Amino acid sequence: MSLIPTLADELSLEIIRLAATPVYEVCDEDPNPHYCYSTALSLARVSSNFYVEVMPILLDTVSLRTRQSLLAFQRLIHKINSRQSPLAHRGVDFPRLIQKSRIYSKEIYGNTADTPSGDYLDYKPVYDVLKNARAMGIHVDSTYHLLYNALDERGVPADDWTCRDALFWGGWTKWKELTCSIGGLAFLRQLKRLTIWIDDKSHKPSDDPRGLPAWTRTIPFHHMPNLTHFACTLTGSSEAHTPPTRMMVYIAPPSALGQDRHVIEQWILNPLDRHGVVVEFSPRQYSTSTSLEEAYFCGDGDRAWEEASRRLALLGDYQGP
Fold first, then answer.
1. pLDDT tens for residues 240-266?
2. Which of 117, 155, 249, 305 is a plausible cystine mate for 231, CB 3.0–4.6 Å?
């Protein structure tokens, strides 16, 4: 059965893709945290054929902006894994889609003495949410606890932990919770890509000629022997409330990978190594409170790897994205 009877399937699919793609830039223009998904959700209800085409788009980036959304996503994963959900019989491979998802989290705070029993976070299911993500975006000021508590609940990540790509963003990145736990250290050892976006005027720029901020020297790269990709925000304007506009991207060259597993740490410590590539954030009308959030939603992290890889390929020293 045709998706749209009067149109060719190729054109129908393109129309559905464009209509279902969330408009992340307007997420904060509505009190409903899922406002950007409303069109995709409406299309998924049109027919079973629409549903099959829309769900991969809808699950490309999973935005967990409230405690309730996290709990709901946990229940979905539990039902799919236990084959209790009729969703598994509608022609959509949900486990595969979730493995390809980018999981983004913000404004989900930890349990307190006043947390209602129905909203209490059990961190064991959080492990199941994060373990198979294509990439995770963690807001360090409000959801960092999801990662380190989930890892602590499980201990050393088992063979089922496949997420190797992490982005931390916010006011500052803390490392003690990961470096002081068995699960956290195992997570760091498995990382292949690390992105850190910090928008904090309290940190002075370093005297590094590449423009790398001083805080990059506090990152525990010695615990990340498999890391091959690193990106970070560069110091923005000295004017107050000006968000970063550039990031430094480093992709380890193949020639260096065979010599030392801590190649990125060596690059950080060597101010004369100019292998890194400066990439601009996509032009956008940022608001001061959500600039980095919008950048994540709109794919600036993935685009940075692609742009750096393209430019390094032109120089003849390239490690694929």
1. 445 567 889 999 887 666 666 678 888
2. 249
Residue 251 CB contacts under 8 Å (≥ 6 apart), including other chains: 228, 229, 277, 305, 308, 309, 312, 318, 319, 321
DSSP assignment string, 48-106: HHHHHHHHHHHTSEEEE-SHHHHHHHHHHHHHHHTT--GGGGTT--HHHHHHTPEEEE-
Q: Is beta strand 246-251 parallel, antiparallel or unpaired with respect to 277-280?
A: antiparallel
In a domain, 201, yes or no: yes
Of the three residues 42, 58, 74, the one that is the final residue of a domain is 58
Residue 156 lies in a domain: no
- What integer is the mean pLDDT of 140-154? 87
Q: Has this prediction a pTM greater than 0.85?
A: no
Which domain does 216 fall in, by range?
192-321
Would residue 93 count as lying in a domain? no
Residue 54 CA to residue 282 CA, distance in Å, equals 26
Q: Please report whether residue 254 resides in a domain.
A: yes
Of 40, 58, 76, the residue at which a domain comes to its end is 58
* Length of the chain in terms of residues written: 321
145: region left, alpha or beta (phi > 0 left; psi from -120 to 50 alpha): alpha
The answer to whether residues 167 and 197 touch, using CB atoms and an 8 Å cutoff, is yes
User: Which residues, 6 or more positions from 28, have their beta carbon under 8 angstroms from its beta carbon?
Assistant: 287, 290
